[in-house]
Amino acid sequence: MAERPLGELLRHARQRLADAGIADAAFDSRLLVEHFSGTTRTDAISSPDRIVGQVAEIEAALDRRISGEPVHRILGYRDFYGMRLSLSAETLEPRPDTETLVDAVLPFVRETAARDGICRILDLGTGTGAIALALVTQEPRAVATGVDVSDDALATAAANAGQLGVSARFSAKKSDWFSEIDGLHHLIVSNPPYISSSEIEDLQNEVRNFDPRRALDGGPDGLEPYRTIASGASRHLEKDGLVGLEIGHDQRRDVTEIFEQAGYHLLAQHKDLGGNDRVLVFRR
C-alpha cells in the first residue's frame, strides 16, 4: 500500500513493534512515523486522516527496529543537552547519563571563562562531540578540542559543530589520547570506554551490535583508559585545572585510586538519574 492515513499508520506501526516484543513500541513507532513522514504529534491529533505517502520507508524502518537496530540509529540522530546530534557508524550514541558530566563541570567552565575570558576544554574520545559541544554551546567564551582516533567520528563531530554554529570554537583532532595534543587546557573531560572486554558479550544487543566496540572496550578490567588519562593529563592541564570523567556504576573506588596515585584528589562525585555513581571530578 503506497499511502495510508496518519492515524491508521501510527496504530499499525505501534502494533508491529508491540507484536515483535519491542519494549517502547508506542514511543519508537511514533518517532519513526513522524521522522519519515515529516509529521508531528500535533498532526496526529488534529489531522489523523492526513494521507501519508512514505509508507514503504516507514515499513523499512520498522523492519530495522524489529531486527534490533536502536531507534536513534535508524533516525540518524540523538538529542543531547538540548542539541540534535548526528550519529554515524563509529560514534557512541550519547545517552542521558552523560548529561550528568556536562552538569558537573559546566559551573567551572563558566567561572573560568568569566575570570580568564576563555575556557579551553579537551574532550578525549569525543565521538559525536556531545560533551564538548554541550559545553561550548552553554558558554560562549569556551573553546574545545575534540579528540578521537576515528576519522568517521571526527567528521561527525565537526559536522555537528557546524550544525550548531560553533565551528569557530570547536576543533576535531585525530589523536590516540594525548599523543598529538599540545598546549594547556583548563578542563579535560572524557566518557572513555569503561566496559571490561569479557563483559561486552553480555551487553544488550542494541549496544553490543550497534555501538562501536572501540568506544565500549576498556581493556581486561575496564580501567585502561583511566590509567592512560591519569598518567598523561597533568602535562596538558593548566594550574588548578580539572579532569571530569564518566565512569561505570561500580568503578568509583578503582578510578579514584588510579587518580590519587597519580597525584590528584577527588573534588566531586555525582550520581546519574538512576542513582548510580556516574561522574568523578579531580583536581591536581
Structure commentary:
The protein has 284 residues and is of the alpha/beta class. Helices cover 40% and strands 21% of the residues. It is built from eleven helices and eleven strands. The protein has a seven-stranded mixed beta sheet with strand order 7-6-5-8-9-11-10, with helices on both faces. Strands 1-2 form a two-stranded antiparallel ribbon. α1 runs parallel beside α4, α2 packs antiparallel against α4 and α6 packs across α7. The chain is elongated. The N and C termini lie far apart (64 Å).
Number of β-strand runs: 11
Judged by helices, strands and strand pairing, the structural class is alpha/beta
Secondary structure: helix percent: 40-55%
Radius of gyration: 21 Å
Q: What pattern of helices and strands is seen along the backbone?
A: EHHHEHHEEHEHEHEEHHEHEE
> How would you sum up the major sheet?
7 strands, mixed
Query: What would you call the shape?
Result: elongated
Q: Could you name the ranges where pLDDT drops below 50 across 5 or more consecutive residues?
A: none
The chain-level mean pLDDT equals: 95
Distance between the termini: 64 Å
Number of helices: 11
Strand order of the largest sheet: 7-6-5-8-9-11-10
DSSP strand content: 15-25%
Structure at a glance:
With 284 residues, this protein is α/β, with parallel strands linked by helices. It has helices at 6-19, 25-37, 41-46, 55-66, 71-75, 99-116, 130-138, 151-164, 205-208, 224-232, 252-261; strands at residues 4-5, 51-52, 77-80, 83-86, 119-124, 142-148, 170-174, 185-190, 237-246, 265-271, 277-283. The protein has eleven helices and eleven strands.
